Amino acid sequence: MAWMVNRREAAKNGQLPAEGRNDPLMELEYDSAFSKLWTVARGKSGSCIARRYNGDPAKPALFDNPVSEGEQTGIVTADRWHANGNAPDVSGIPNNGLYWVTDMAVNPANGAAWMSFGAQATYDYAGTYGAIGRVYTVGRDSGGPDGDEGTPQAAHPDPSKADNASQTLALAFHGTRVYALAFDLETREFNLFSADNPAYVPGACCQRGRICSEVTEGQCAALRGAWQGPQTTCAETDCTYQV
Predict the structure, then answer these.
(1) Distances, alpha carbon 122 to alpha carbons 26, 28, 132, 183, 243, in Å
(2) For the segment 37-65, what is each residue's pLDDT rounded down to a tens digit?
(3) 177-184 and 190-196: which strand pairing?
(4) Distance (Å, rounded) from C-alpha 124 to C-alpha 116?
(5) Domain locations in the chain as residue ranges
């Protein structure tokens, strides 16, 4: 990957990772457990182009060796989509304004990316994943947004402020919780919200040496183990032939 001025993302000799594009980079997250690099950049049409570069699970890292000329070591495939799920040149539905990803965070429990949008006042795309301030998710192998975790502002303890227009400015995961920093566009207040991480579900993880531990899918991937599924237990799992 070549880094350009103004935080740009560019391809090396037209190959991966940026597939020949040279777009202003807005967000970047690296998931070492599942060996994936997530980015969001401004496309030429003003849309936000999200990309995910998928690494080789057999290698310890996405970029684990020096990259020689024309070679993209570690990256196996790449996926690309419009962040809000709307490709105006295909759907014929304009966004009518610029939008951007205010923050993106990868859920360590299952490798899904969580993100939220901000936009110009003229932006009016009303599709499933187009609203400002809501938190949307993209599965670690999905080809676009496929989940909606709602608007953090809606959990405001003051009912008179719960419906205020807002933007979600920051997302973070810690332990069993997920945190969101929201800005109330009407009162101009910052509010911090938290909720249980819905993907934080332990299961049996078989590792080399017939070792078994009960952890989340993401934690098992970081251990290079074989996860047996949600709510499975080591007591009921035979790890002899699992790894």
Answers:
(1) 20, 26, 12, 19, 53
(2) 999 987 666 789 999 999 887 776 666 55
(3) antiparallel
(4) 15
(5) 2-196, 203-236
Kindly tell me if the per-residue pLDDT of 27 is higher than 80. yes
Alpha-carbon distance of 9 to 203, in angstroms, equals 38
E strand residue ranges, the chain? 2-4, 8-10, 22-31, 36-42, 48-55, 75-82, 99-106, 113-119, 135-138, 147-148, 166-174, 177-184, 190-196, 203-207, 211-215, 226-227
Fold for the domain defined by 2-196: Lipocalin (2.40.128)
DSSP 57-124: TTSSSTT-SPPPTT--TTEEEEEEEETTS--HHHH-----S-EEEEEEEE-TTT--EEEEEEE-TT--
CA angle 36, 86, 126 (to 5 degrees): 120
201-214 tens-digit pLDDT: 999 999 998 999 99
SS3 call for 221: helix
How far, in Å, CA of 72 to CA of 42, rounded?
23
